[in-house]
Structure formats: structure tokens, C-alpha cells
Amino acid sequence: MLASAREWMQVLREKEHPDVVIGVFHSGRDGGIVTDKYAENATERVAREIPGFDAIIFGHDHQLCCDSVACEDGRQIPIVNPGGHANYVSQLTVKMEKTHGKWVVEHVDAENVSMEGLEPDADFLTTFEPQKEEVKAYVGKRIGTFVNPIST
After folding, report:
1. Per-residue pLDDT at 83
2. What beta strand segments (E) does the chain contain?
3. Is the dihedral of CA 35, 49, 64, 122 positive or negative?
4. 52/50 Cα distance (integer angstroms)
5. How much is the average pLDDT of 77-94?
6. CB 42 within 8 A of CB 30
7. pLDDT per residue as tens digits for the range 25-68
8. Alpha helices, DSSP H only, in 52-121?
9. 3-class DSSP assignment, residue 21
10. Of 2, 100, 89, 113, the residue nearest 53 (C-alpha)
11. Cα torsion through 78, 84, 86, 88, rounded to 10
12. Is residue 47 helix, strand or coil?
């Protein structure tokens, strides 16, 4: 993840010249499975070591988080994770100012907004019920049998 972020940030900056870069990662903050070539939860490390992100929304470890990480370029990078089960939605508010003809990020506010007390939209649920049932049937399908105990 770190190598990919480093490479694509360089490409993005050189070829696209974005005014804002928001990372959206399927990765947790830190920890999990770590090998020489792989880190399951590497969001904090990317925020710290790869200059160019203005904020990062992440999730994989299902841990509610709203924090900032000091990047090696001296900026504080907001990182926000809505946790699990759709109890929260992460929200970023980006304040920008035009300086010398170019938009510049002045500040990013990050927060997790509680969904408590909100009812799901009935039309949305009805519209996507067939796809939901198709996914449930697929992931619930037996594909084999273990004859010995396993540990994950």
C-alpha cells in the first residue's frame, strides 16, 4: 500500500495537478497482518510518510476513528474511519482559498456523524433488495468442508 500510494501520488501530482487529494482506503489505521511486503492496516503510515494527501477516509478494522497524523512534510492530515455496521458516516469539510490563481486547501475538518435515530430510505431498500438477496445467497453458499480445526 505504501509503495502504491507513493507511486500514484507522484503520477497524480505530475500529470493531474489536483487542488485536493482525498485518500479512500480499504485499510485500517495500523497493525493487523504485517509481512516484509504487506501491511493489512497501513493508513496511518501512508498519512505520515506520503506527502500530498489532504485527508484520508479509511475502513477495514471497523474501529471508529477521527484523528490527525503529522506528515513528514509538516502538515497534519485528518484521518477518519466510520467504524462498522453503518452506525456512523465520515464527513469531511474542506475549506479552500484561491491564491495566485490556484485553489489551495486552507483547512480540513473531519468528523463521524452518528446515524442513530435515522431510518433507512424505504425506496432505496426496495430498489436494491434483489441485489442484496443475490449477494446473501452467494456469500452463504457452501463451497467446501473442513475436516480439521483451523485458526484465523
Report:
1. 97
2. 22-25, 55-58, 65-70, 76-81, 88-99, 102-114
3. negative
4. 6
5. 97
6. yes
7. 999 999 888 888 888 999 999 999 999 999 999 999 999 999 99
8. none
9. coil
10. 2
11. -40
12. helix
